[in-house]
Amino acid sequence: MAGGPLGADWAVDWVRRSAATVAEHRVELITLDREIGDGDHGENLDRGFGAVLGKLDSVAPDATPGDVLKLVATTLISTVGGAAGPLYGTAYLRAATSVGSEAELDSAAVAKLLEAARDGIVARGKAESGDKTMIDAWTPAVEAAAAEAGRGASPAEVLAAAADAAAAGAEATEPLVARKGRASYLGERSRGHRDPGAQSSAYLLRAAADAAAEA
């Protein structure tokens, strides 16, 4: 696994891998959302990341990771409908702000990036752990990333730990009763279904980790 800091090339690769994994799991995400939501999560995300892909050629040669993340944020906010656009858009925007103009991100910066993204989702959606939302994937990811960074792990290792924790967190939403969003209207009937936002979050964080492993 690569051990060095992560630059704009990593961020661009993360975008490409995100678009690919969202496209690959589009039907799955639609199905998950149809069970407890309005069924548009996979379609909206696929359209959003497709739009981001179309703008990658405009990324300047001297772009920073923050520049790439800001491009993702503004594009998702303008193209993705439903709750996902504002939530993910805010996440990427806060992440971009957290890393500023840094050309390369060390482990601490990566952990901070993830925390800022999670905090942006919380600020926008007002959800907390246990509400059966994407926060149930993001918070374990943030905690795992901070722990790995604290023990001196590489940026790639920090992201791998975050991705593993997010996947486990998404799976752990299945027995929960939704307390936020459209799924909350179902009450007890939301139990037994995985939250689509938590699942898509896990896929996006795995894309970040895979890009870092190849950086």
From TrEMBL:
The keyword Disulfide bond belongs to this UniProt entry's keyword annotation: no
Biological process per Gene Ontology, one example term: glycerol catabolic process
Taxonomic lineage of the native organism: Bacteria, Bacillati, Actinomycetota, Actinomycetes, Micrococcales
UniProt keyword Ribosomal protein present: no
Assigned keywords, A-Z: Kinase, Transferase
InterPro entries: DhaK_L_YcgS (IPR012737), DhaL_dom (IPR004007), DhaL_dom_sf (IPR036117), Dihydroxyacetone_Kinase (IPR050861)
Coiled coil (residue ranges): none
Organism encoding this protein: Agromyces agglutinans
Protein's gene: dhaL
Name of the protein in question: Dihydroxyacetone kinase subunit L
Domain (DhaL) ranges: 9-210
PROSITE patterns xref list: DHAL (PS51480)
PANTHER family xrefs: TRIOKINASE/FMN CYCLASE, TRIOKINASE_FMN CYCLASE
One example GO MF annotation: glycerone kinase activity
